[in-house]
Design goal:
Blueprint lengths: L1 H31 L16 H5 L14 H19 L6 H22 L4 H18 L2 H33 L10 H14 L3 H26 L12 H22 L8 H4 L4
Helix pairs in contact: 1-3, 1-4, 3-4, 4-5, 4-9, 5-6, 5-7, 6-7, 6-8, 7-8, 7-9, 8-9
Length: 274
C-alpha cells in the first residue's frame, strides 16, 4: 500500500514537472526561438527558476502573475502521467510515451496561443518521430509515413492557399490568415514518422474529421454571437495531434471495444489486428 502510494506521488510529480516544461517552452520559444532563462512576458525581465517554476510565480518587477494556462497544463500532465503509468503505450513504453506527450503539449499550446508551429519544434519533433517510428515500424514504414504525411499536407497547403487567395480577390478583401500554415505541413511529416505507413492515412483522416467537427461548432457559436469574420482561421495543429494521440494511445482499446462487431477497419494495415 505504502509503496503504491509513493509510486503515485512520484509519477504525479513527474507529470507536474512535464507540465512545467511544456509551460516554459510555450512561454519562451514563440518569443526567443531558443532555450533561455525564464522571463516575464509582460515586461521581458528575467526571473529566477524557482520563482518562475514553483513560487510565487509572479514577476518581481511588474507584479504580473502567470496565466491560468499554467495551472491547467500542469493538472492535465499530472493526470496524463498517472494514466500513462497505469496503461503505458505498449510499443514505446512509459518514459518515451511521456516525452511524446510533452512534445504534443508544446505543439498544441503554442499553436492555440500564437497560431504557430515553430521550426525548432518541428526539427526536434523530427528526431523524436524517427525514434518512435523506428521502434514501432522500422525504417521503411517510418520514412514512407513521414513522406506521405508531409506530401499530403503540402498539397493541401498549396490548394488551400490558392482557394483563400481566389476568394479574397473575388470579394475584394485582404487576406490576413491562411487555411493552413507551413508549420502544419512540417507537423504532419513528424506525425507521419511516428505513426508510420499506412497508419498516417488514418491519422490524417481522423484529424480532418476532428477539425471539421470543431470548426463547425465554432462557426455556429460565432454566428450565434454575431462575431463571425470571413476567413477566420483556427489553429489546426491541435487537430493533427489529436488524431495521432488517438491512434498511438487509444487505437488498440478502440479496436478491442468496437472490433467484436466488425464496425471498425481492422487496424489500418494490421496494426491493431488481434
Amino acid at each position: 500500500m505504502w509503496l503504491n502510494l509513493i509510486s503515485i506521488i512520484g509519477v504525479g510529480g513527474l507529470g507536474w514537472a512535464a507540465g512545467m516544461v511544456v509551460n516554459y517552452l510555450a512561454d519562451t520559444l514563440p518569443w526567443k526561438r531558443r532555450i533561455v532563462r525564464p522571463f516575464c512576458i509582460n515586461c521581458d525581465q528575467t526571473q529566477s527558476l524557482f520563482n518562475y517554476m514553483v513560487w510565487p510565480r509572479q514577476c518581481l518587477h511588474c507584479k504580473e502573475r502567470r496565466s491560468w494556462r499554467t495551472w491547467l497544463v500542469e493538472l492535465v500532465y499530472i493526470g496524463l502521467a498517472l494514466w500513462t503509468w497505469q496503461q503505458p503505450q505498449k510499443e514505446i513504453g512509459f518514459w518515451l510515451g511521456m516525452v511524446v506527450l510533452l512534445y504534443f503539449g508544446v505543439v498544441v499550446v503554442i499553436d492555440m496561443e500564437h497560431k504557430l508551429i515553430l521550426h525548432p519544434v518541428s526539427i526536434a519533433g523530427t528526431g523524436l518521430g524517427l525514434i518512435v517510428g523506428l521502434i514501432r515500424e522500422g525504417w521503411l514504414n517510418t520514412l514512407i509515413g513521414g513522406m506521405v504525411g508531409f506530401g499530403v499536407m503540402w498539397l493541401l497547403f498549396m490548394l488551400g492557399d490558392l482557394i483563400m487567395k481566389g476568394l479574397a480577390r473575388l470579394r475584394g478583401q485582404t487576406l490576413d490568415d491562411v487555411a493552413l500554415g507551413f508549420g502544419d505541413v512540417n507537423l504532419s511529416g513528424v506525425l507521419g514518422l511516428m505513426l508510420g505507413w499506412p497508419l498516417i492515412v488514418a491519422g490524417l483522416v481522423g484529424a480532418i474529421m476532428i477539425g471539421g467537427l470543431v470548426s463547425f461548432i465554432y462557426l455556429v457559436v460565432m454566428l450565434a454571437l454575431r462575431r463571425y469574420r470571413l476567413f477566420m482561421a483556427l489553429p489546426y495543429g491541435p487537430f493533427w495531434v489529436a488524431g495521432a494521440f488517438v491512434l498511438l494511445y487509444l487505437g488498440a482499446r478502440l479496436q478491442a471495444l468496437l472490433g467484436r462487431r466488425g464496425r471498425i477497419w481492422v487496424g489500418v494495415g494490421g496494426r491493431y489486428k488481434h
